[in-house]
Amino acid sequence: MRMQIHHLLRLGRPLIVAAALALSALLPWPAQAEMSLIRLTPEQYLRTIHDIFGLSIRVDDNKVEPGFRDEGLLAIGDRKLTVGSAELERYETLAQEIALQVVDAKHRPILLGCKPKAEDAADEACATQFISKVGLLLFRRPLTAAELQQYVSTHTRGAAQMHSFNTGLAAALSEMLVSPEFLFRVVRSTDEAAHPGTLQLDAYSRAARLSFFLWNATPDRELLAAAQSGRLMTAAGLQQQVDRLLDSPRLEDGMRTFFIDMLAFGGLDSDPGIDALSIDTGFYPKFTANVQADAEEQTLRTIVDHLLYKNKDYRDLFTTRDTFLTPALAALYDVPLPRQQELGGAVPWVPYHFSDSDPYIGLLTQVSFLSLHSHPGRSSPTRRGKALREIFLCQKVPPPPGNVDFSLVQNTSDPRYKTVRQRLTVHRNEPMCAGCHKIMDPIGLSFENFDTAAEYRRSENGAQIDASGDLSGKPFVGVQQLAQVIRDDPATTACLINRAFSYGTQRKPTAAEQSWLTRLQGQLSQSGVRWRDLMRDITLNPDFYTDVVPANYARTTSTLH
Amino acid sequence: MALSKGGVLRDGGIALGLGALFLLGASTGALAETRGYAISLIHTATYPGKDDCPQGGNGGNTEIQERILMRHGYTREQAERIVANEGKDDNGHRFNFEMRGQLDGHAVGIGDFPTSVPDPHIETVVGAGPGHFAYGFNLAGHPTPDSFEDPETHELVQNQMWRVLGCFAVYQVKHPVIPYNEAIAWDTAEDDMPAWLLSISGEDLRHDGDVTVTFDRSLDIAMRDTHGVLLAGSSYVIDSDPRSHSVFKGHIKDGVLTVEPGDFAMQGESQFYAVLRFKQTHLRLKLKPDGTLVGLIGGYQPWLDYYYYLAVRSEVTAQVDVPGTYYAMKRLADAFPDPSGQNTAISAAYYLEAVPAFLTSAAGKLVGTAYMSGGRAN
Amino acid sequence: MMGAIKNLSRRKVLRGMLGGAAVTVGLPLLECFLNENGTAYAATGKALTPCFGTWFFGLGLTPKLWVPKQTGNKYTLPDHIGVLAPLQAKMNLYGGMQVFLDGKVNQNHISGAQCQMTGIVTRTGTEYNTSFDTLIADQIGKRSRFRSLEVDCMGDRRGSWSARGDNGKSPAEISPLALYQRIFGPEFRDPNAAHFVPDPAVMLRHSVLSAVSEQRQALTQQVSAWDRARLDEYFSSVRDLEQKLQVELEKPAPLPACTVPQKEEEPDIGQLIDQVSKVNRQFAQLIAHALACGQTQVFNVSRGSSLSPLRERGQTSGYHQMTHEEPIDATLGYQIKCKWYAEQQMAMLRDFVQTLDSIREGDGTLLDRTVVYAFTDHGEARLHSMKDYMAFTFGSGGGRMKTGYYLADEGGAATRVGLTIMQAFGLPNSDAWGTETNHVVKPFSEVLVAA
């Protein structure tokens, strides 16, 4: 008991201490402090450095560990990542480079906030001032007295050894930059007996969760102050911060990061990420490097414009004719793109509206979807069907069974399997294959008018593509109808809402949370699935600021009751 | 009809989709179609023959430089040694090929002052009449003593430019090989120069009939596809500058487009053609099923235009004897005499290729569509 | 001969030959530095440290075509793997092995490789345990600048099969240029340099890391039980980095076979065979030089994670697709294109191993004191089969393994190869390895050298 109070005091949360004391008076099982670690992503690292020290600080390549997808999101996979040897090696080098820039002649007048008494020796006063200011921002909470002392003494040692105040200060800063308190987002919570197995995040952890969710950024000073004062733990205080963050243009950053994760632009199973896309350009000469570079941005711009600037319904993203194009994309989609462009000037993004007779409709016919889930040299209905289900409907498609006997499809005396369609017919007729392929191939076939490079092609040789299928009982023929079916399917909305909640909490929803999410889906389906509304609803829900004790670590209930 | 779809065009505003395709030119109110193109390749139309140069031809840079040295007094052996030694003689003294002209006692560049050296009498292509081939057009309207036979149409045509150039090794290549000096120039220009455009308007371009052919320059630089050729289906804004605007009455018959002779002019960029001009322009373009155009453009070209093109590139890059070419062009020019009687234009023919492109006006109006087989435009 | 130059100290020789300048030209390993059999430094009697590495190739080989007709150390190498002929004497081939799923889902292209590297087949594709190369690194690589090096030749950072701890695979370096900078860049201390001065900036960095290390106990007490292992790994990384800087602060022992490789232009990184082959060769050079210069003892090389999207320029389908879609030729009885792809990978394997073999050390080569373990994900890729696995080892690890053998198991667990290697390196607790039916206690003793 004593130890726990001391523990809590050290972490500096007077409010929680009071609450804990009060609770512990009522309940026999004491609240237990927990500390979880979530690794900072390379993007978050970069943004944090720039947010704190300014954009002029150069940060070189830090994408050592690309992360992995768990339960459909990289954000959830991040919980399982640590900082390995190669990664720490890189981060230590970066820490040096960043720290040296911060104390260089150009930056220190702006960033340090104080001048040392002498350039060639330690100055503890100035160092303390800088370190505590920066520490708050780097660790997303105030430094403890012990931590402050630790870093100041590094400064003093370093300054003495190298006869330079600045070098000593850089050493202290680099120590903070490799600290687990920086490289990980430390989530401090308490497991209160009132909600066994559910962890309540402390104020600073709430600030961080809110900030990374809405802006994908480290909490700014105002948010940290709200945490420090305890305002963030009140409903009114929370609402104030949520509204502030939702009103900011930085909401776009958070949205982009979320959709890059949800839409699997970094890769999905055997489908490579956009960066690693290897479409055989010998077959698809229009799929130039410009197209590859523009593909992700086209989709993100479409989404941001639709959800953020026009405040439209998410479901309409599947049927919208509005998008943005560059000349390279326009040539690929076979449409004219009148534009104002200076000779040799920057390539513009031009708002474009496809007409009703154009085959391009919604997100599903954009390059970022069609090409990402294809083979390098030809289209893949199966991969597209699988991707559609997994990404937009949150449905899991089981992996192909091991030890499948493919000799059935490779009977050489009957070489029927020369076309995509023929091969997939076997998929659908063979009982052992049909179960899964039935739910993927028909969807994918409706996309067959779009080749690997997302170019539209008419059927050749007069062969009619059977692009009919059904989705959850709703039939469709062709991609235009499919888009409408997807739009109207409740699973589409449910999937977005689930993903958003899971992304922000970086875990799967609990059963209780799932019920709430289902209710939310019902509400938003009526009122309109709008991004700000969804964000607001999620971030004002107290459950958003909880974590769960993993199953095999759950403590048994108290026997004293 | 089409603009009623409500696509109001603002600054970078919403562009219309394919639903609003068919515009332009149809003052009769009949359904009209305009197809747009960007020129993807243009070079001298070559057709080397075994007997063109009985004296052996002018050769390439090595032979050209050896002859220059010999005209300056070196023996053949000395000339060969100097050329093999990067232009340096036995004393280490480097012969300045570019500045070998003499004017008023000063050394001058032979590109700017071709007459500062005597006429070296380069070899020119011999032979005329049937059986002596060169691409071209019957510009004179009747056979002339120096006509060639066109290898495709078998018409008797005039191409005095070919006479001038055809004995230099660099031009003794056959399509699809391109004269190296022109290939390099085009390749470089493609990425930096505003694209050259053309459009064909008619009632229904899938059938024979009368058309209007318009050339323009673009405000945009061409884009390449992954094979390195011009990207089909790109969009280009038309430069309204009249200096590059040429209109012709034309006719499509059996899939081949020809025009009534007229004036042609297109602004280019230095290192490539600064300007490409023809009088009595003729055109012969095949409309291929995949939408590209292939064929010939020609006419009477001011010969100084092409001379400057070579001179600017310098002798070594152009791979010709530059003053020699000047003298030969001056001598063989065959049209548009100046008051002194010197012909200012020379008959010439160029190979031309174009890929489908969307053409838009600066105001954002779609003017020509990219017609490609398999594309949605058909 | 030996007697005459025995009295020369290393220092004298180097100074005399080079005037005190740093060595950048390779010297043959002078006999006076070695003992009688050329295996150790005379001065210290320390044996040259052995090395270990893995080389993963996806999608196996064409079934039956790679199987020699004889077993033992006098077998004829079949044509399908004929490119390895120059290395046959230094190679062992293992066949007839299995990976057991014990009722779990076959995570195609993952479970097989996972089992051979970690001894465990997990339920889901996202779990991964400590791989045995890290155990060997703990044994032989503790004093190295880099604990181990992981590279992928196809631009896939998730391509490696190495993992320390249970928190996921180590990321792989995909850029040869970046690896060059890491190893031979400004922080490289040439072991053959005549002069050495510890860099005070490095000393400061080292002391900063020590201060971070000191937080270990306090933080470990605070962190929740379920994240303790991950925090542990973070601190292991800190320790590795301290080790690295420590090495950079000490004068390294001379290694006459060490030369700094040429800095080559960054190649095209992609999935086409010619690209992958080139990257493989560049990484081979870097790794060979890194080993010869004592920068690391352990390495892992892969070519894309599992699915091997290897592709031939101009083909619409890649290797993996072909394994499932190419019909078996009626006359020949195998998939023609797939066989060709498999042989391309064998050629890359040969390139890699020969690069190690090309660095002379005494009367042997770098390969002689290395063991390279080449393994694959499926016995028969077409069927995602977990049977009929083949694997290779090259090199004897400095006499720790016999070579030149073909060993045909009869359905035993493929983890036997890993066990054999661990025992060869004398790892403690290597009497057994692996879990469930992949648990093995019997190594391939034919190739082990009696202790």
How would you characterize the overall build of this protein?
- The complex is a heterotrimer of chains A (561), B (378) and C (451).
- Chain A is built from 24 helices and ten strands.
- Chain A has helices spanning 2-10, 14-26, 42-53, 74-77, 85-102, 108-111, 124-139, 145-162, 165-177, 180-183, 203-214, 221-229, 235-247, 251-262, 289-309, 327-333, 367-370, 381-392, 420-429, 431-446, 478-488, 490-505, 511-527, 531-540, and strands at 32-39, 184-191, 198-201, 267-268, 271-272, 322-325, 350-353, 468-471, 474-477, 546-548.
- The model of chain A is unreliable at 1-12, 23-29, 409-414 and 557-561 (pLDDT under 50).
- With 378 residues, chain B is of the alpha+beta class.
- Chain B folds into two domains: 32-50 and 123-368, no CATH class; 61-116, no CATH class.
- Chain B has helices at 61-71, 76-84, 160-165, 180-192, 303-313, 315-318, 322-332, and strands at residues 33-44, 101-103, 106-108, 148-149, 156-157, 194-202, 209-221, 234-237, 246-253, 256-259, 264-267, 275-287, 293-302, 335-337, 343-360, 366-368.
- In chain B, strand 6 (194-202) and strand 7 (209-221) form a beta hairpin.
- Chain C has a seven-stranded mixed sheet, sandwiched between helices. In chain C, strands 5-6 form a two-stranded antiparallel ribbon.
- Chain C has helices at residues 2-5, 10-18, 111-118, 132-140, 176-184, 200-213, 216-222, 228-249, 273-292, 319-325, 336-357, 415-424; strands at 51-56, 91-97, 149-152, 298-302, 360-361, 364-365, 370-375, 389-394, 406-408.
- The chains are: A alpha+beta (561), B alpha+beta (378), C alpha/beta (451).
- Chains in contact: A-B, A-C.
- Chains A and C meet through strand 1, helix 5, helix 8 and helix 9 of A and helix 6, helix 8 and helix 10 of C.
